[in-house]
């Protein structure tokens, strides 16, 4: 395998300054299929310098909004042109199914188009009434500057787009670091930005590990903003490093998301079938490697046994395999480390008294599950409680825990009993209850009789240790801007405050 030059600085692709490389592993068979540059602190310094020059002296921050929006729309067109190739690359790199990869490309396209529309339809600023006809006062929004963007491994292309699209729409320059284990579609996205005509130095990419690459980006004195999506431990390190130079920081740090099912949602056969089906989707899409996964099923006691029995039966039938194989519904975990972590959490839960209803082991290899792949069977753990690690901590694997409640207050208390607060779902046929419970949940997104959909025009982010700031929506654009108040005195005259 030849080494890809995956570091992009000042408009040029290059190898790492140190010459170091990294093999990219296919999680379906644990075999390398690509080799990329393994950047370090020196590469970050060069990339930040290029972004700094492009912001301070380049054309992009001063490019008319309509032209910036046109470029974003062009990127959307290129994404659709290359949809199948990018989806295949995402499937092989991250282990997800090919159909999931296609959906991701479409969602990335939507993000670029949304921020293009948002920025071009804005007003020229907010006029502030100063109480005098001789004063013109307006609040305008300007780009933050150089942005350090750090994306996770589970949705490499999607999460990168949630940062890159608003950063560019606002007129910033950036350096992006994808996860070191899933960098390939971010490389492809930078290639499309170049093809779309983005000026050199605006988009810079450094592939490599969180330490030193992400660490150096977070602390760099010439970086004005850090946007990080990933785990809580890494997020706190990013925040600490950024604090030294008082950068703007946006963090999305995952969740431990409740999916609350009231008995009345299951009163009909159609309702029962839908709630069970959606509980499967909530927990096991992308093998549970989703920050908003509904990994905590909180079900009313009167329907618990029937609900869990059917859930476990269907979970056992989920077809696992290589994401590009026909009929496969769920791919492998992304790495050997993630597989071992999942096994640890399941073992811990069983030791603490959880009852295994489905899964709990690696499946046997087959034609669609190659030997050595990081596969783990969708797992349902019954009779769980809040003291268990598997209930408190983010597993990021195909593991669903089951808790029960008797009253609405108890359901809300359980759902909110988490350090995180990213997302949650409520299933009920009672419209009043749906609104009450949704209003009481301390989570950034609440679904009623659904789970997982998001809209690019609606803010995404969480409460508590799920992070700070928001992505998507108008607030997602605001993260990449600074507000400036311009106060103009149209009739200046002496103040005479001092006598002399």
UniProtKB/TrEMBL annotation:
Superkingdom classification of source: Bacteria
Pathway: Amine and polyamine biosynthesis; betaine biosynthesis via choline pathway; betaine from betaine aldehyde: step 1/1
Entry keywords, A to Z: NAD, Oxidoreductase
Ranges of residues in domain Aldehyde dehydrogenase: 13-486
Catalytic residues in the record: 252
Gene3D superfamilies referenced in this protein's UniProt entry, alphabetically: Aldehyde Dehydrogenase, Chain A, domain 1, Aldehyde Dehydrogenase, Chain A, domain 2
Family, similarity comment: Belongs to the aldehyde dehydrogenase family.
Record protein name field: Aldehyde dehydrogenase family protein
UniProt lineage: Bacteria, Bacillati, Actinomycetota, Actinomycetes, Kitasatosporales
